[in-house]
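Section 5.1 Outputs to date
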Amino acid sequence: MEAKNMKRRDFIKSGGLALSTFAIPFSIMDFFTESNKKNNMNNQQKFDAIIIGGSYAGLSAAMALGRSTRNTLVIDNGKPCNRQTPHSHNFLTQDGQTPKEIATLGKAQVAQYPTISFHDGLATKGTKTTDGFEVTTQSGKVFTSKKLIFATGIADEMPDIEGFAECWGISVIHCPYCHGYEYRKQKTALMANGETAFHMIPLIHNLTDQLIVLTQGKADFSEEQWQKIKAHKVEVIEKEITAVKHQKGHIEKVVFKDGTTLELDAMYAAIPFKQHTDIPQALGCEMTEQGYIQVDDFQKTNIAGVYACGDNATRMRSVANAVYQGSVAGAMLNGELSHEIF
């Protein structure tokens, strides 16, 4: 029988494949495409660009580079800082989705571009080479690239308060744009002091008139700030919090050092952070006074060929902004490569 007249079932059998092989939730071409991409990554250690960090900013940068046919590797350890947050908001078309759903969809879309590869792991070292950069992962793998993007986010440093970490991103929150609407008109605290607190007070007061400021010690406000706080009947408590009582991350009350308690529905908190990785500093990237990677309007650092985007480079901490900055970084990196090659 000629091959062109052979029935599909006979053809499959003749190839030594059982028909049940095709009872899978994706096409056989998708299977081979993904396998080839993994093989290409294993065989090809040199890339046009390496993106360290595969969450929203990193995936957005990868999409811009994939659509520009740049051989790009995304290195990610799968531990985004918002993995405990139940829902993401203020991102057009994705409002109310879980962070994981957004990231999973984004990665699936980026993976359709054949020049994009992924490595599951943690980047531990980065060095400058004569023609680019070399990145080493925790597993010992070494990859090289012409350009580098840091989309590594930041790591929040939890205070020594019982129950605080369990509520972080759920009912102990950082941003009125990301979470405020869901807690509007409810009894809400702000754990902050000084200029940081005064910046947040009007934003939160806009959403609820049941606002209480918890300064964790003596309040640090100017006379003018005190007048405005009192004029809007915002209560300020200067006692220290020792515990957050909650049910599965949903705050019920805070406990003060003197044993008294305060019932709450939500609490904003301004807490310190650190960079997830020290590789940018090791390469010589300048940092801002606040601890962010210094970038220009095009997400470029002071080190030629190195870009940074997302939470590691901005105070505007949101999914939408991370996607925007990633897209800019990817486009600018591609533009730089294009002009160098042309």
